Amino acid sequence: MMPPGFVSNLQEVLLNRKGDSNSNSNAEQEQSSSENSEPVEFDASKPIVLVTNGDGVDSPGLTHLVEALVQQGLYNVHVCVPQSDKSVSGHSVTLRETIEAASAKINGATAFEISGTPVDCVSLALSGALFSWSKPMLVISGINRGSNCGHHMFYSGVVAGAREALLSGVPALSMSLNWKKDESQENDFKDAVSVCLPLINAAIRDVEKGTFPKSCFLNIEIPTSPLNSKGFKLTKQSIWRSTPNWLAISSSRYPTGHFLANQGGLGLQFAQLGRDASAAGAARRLATQKKNLEIIESMGSAGKSDPNRVKKYFRLEFSDNQQEEEIDEDLDYRALESGYVAVTPLSLSPHIETDIQMAASDWISAVLPGEQ
């Protein structure tokens, strides 16, 4: 535990930094609002599409997806995403804490950043408390950086966003790009959107007609080189996963910002300051965590170290991909690695797996003739 005086000094530095940064940020926002286009108009004749993700508003997967949807001029596009990276948050929700929704600027769309998880984003958006409408025609979650095949779907925040939509009775798609280090490029997200846009449009059209598969959402896995894909393939969820590896580390090897994070909101903000690429970004995120600064006031004087208390530090890493012994080309990761866009229908109940598989197969065959 840090000395109270040191905590107080750190707090003062943060507050001064916050004030300066907020002033700059406010000036930038005022200038931006005067130069940018007028607020997005809502057209009641167009279907509503809600877009979320697990990576945040600056994700290229989200940027290219929303841009493509807006350019078509067919939908009212709304965006609700986490304020920070929550890509491995699973189906977690935020309880007993206040959620903040801050407006975000995305041309042609009405957008909010949420201080919560992807599930929080979808749940809040569908509640009617954030947007004036009750339910969208379709929820699209993605495009995630990295595949979510097999058991990775249970960890995935982007898959959970689509699952939450289905829990609320809204059709949904989750989308991920099989990003590979030293091979993939940012422009691959734009290509991924162009490949999947016909499927998205078909889904919205058939939701309106009542012919889209019910009791399931579709998880779409896009190969590393989207434009070279072999087409769409209906797949089944595999049991593919990476090996979880917990590493024991010493306090001296603890990453910058993590030790301070144990001291409450103050440390979290210092860690975030180190990660943000710009002062404006740091100020924006500091503003969303201002309540944490109030909490630290009492922690500095009340916190006392306990010499008899044992502390150990660990870090989780995933490595050594586990492959299935069963050879089945219809499994999601096998189809993805073979160059197909893998489309896996996922239900809320394992008892109807056969039924949703058949319904999804019939629908894909109808909207994308010639696909597998």
Automatic annotation (TrEMBL):
Residues 1-41 are annotated as: Disordered. Residues 49-241 form the Survival protein SurE-like phosphatase/nucleotidase domain. Its EC number is 3.1.3.5. Keywords: Hydrolase, Metal-binding. Transmembrane segments: none annotated. InterPro entries: SurE, SurE-like_Pase/nucleotidase, SurE-like_sf. The keyword Hydrolase applies. It holds the Pfam family SurE. One of its GO terms (molecular function) is metal ion binding. Belongs to the SurE nucleotidase family. NCBIfam families: surE. This is 5'-nucleotidase SurE.
